[in-house]
Write a structure and sequence with these properties.
There is one protein chain. With about 250 residues, this protein is mainly alpha-helical. The chain has helices at about 25-35, 40, 45-65, 65-75, 75-85, 85-120, 140-150, 155-160, 165-180, 180-190, 195-200, 205, 210-240, and strands spanning about 10-15, 15-20, 125-130, 135. It contains 13 helices and 4 strands. The strands form 2 sheets. A two-stranded antiparallel ribbon has the order 1-2. A hairpin with a 2-residue loop joins strand 1 (about 10-15) and strand 2 (about 15-20). Helix 10 (about 180-190) packs antiparallel against helix 11. The radius of gyration is 22 Å and the shape is elongated. Keywords: Membrane, Transmembrane, Transmembrane helix.
Length: about 250
Amino acid sequence: MNAQPRRSLLKISMFGISYLKDHNPYMIAWWSAVFPGFGHYLLNQYIRATLLTLSEVIINTLAHINEAMIYSFCGKYELATSILEPTWAFGYLVIYLYTIGDSFRIALYQNKLTHLALKENKNIPCLAVTAAEIQYLEEKSPFFSAFYSFFFPGLGQLYNHRFGLAFYAMFWWWIYIWLSKAHEALLTLLLGQLEASNSMLNPHWFLFMPSVLFGSIYQSYLATMEQNQLFRLEQRTYLSKRYSNSKLRIFS
């Protein structure tokens, strides 16, 4: 009797591949500190991660956190204090600290679940055909995944077939470019007009961009590496069971 595994290692759906994987809890917590929600994206918890990133942008904007940070970097501490909205800033701090702790806790527990799922050694799905999408495990290049994300956040996720996250990232990247005027400022800077470039740049929205850019690069690169490991594990599991009675030893 082929009983269903109590703990599935991965699930392939029309939205992509969700899976259990060993994580470094400190790295997960660090990415949650960089941008609340990013740590949960690395843990494949996409809905709560998306809601956390939305709350980060909204509450940060209402509390004027980014502007206060910029004034602090420039040594204008009184101006930084005066621009903060205390009610929103306090709420932001509570959610920010909770997000870090929650992602750290989940990473530790998912590591345990991963080990248990691997011990069950059940068949691993490699293909899902639906009316809307065809999703499958395949080997891809981590370099190209990171390369695409570097030029436009979201393209690396699209390369990994995680199209919901991909278009969400691309939508917000366009918003950041539009509101920060980053492209216009860069073009003006390349023309040698430094003061004009600084004056047109909106620092609040620009400050989101480095975190989003490098977070997208890291997530797409890591996801490609992990899916490549799952691809090899699925092949190994299938071949080991398919030829279990063979005298030829493919795997030790």
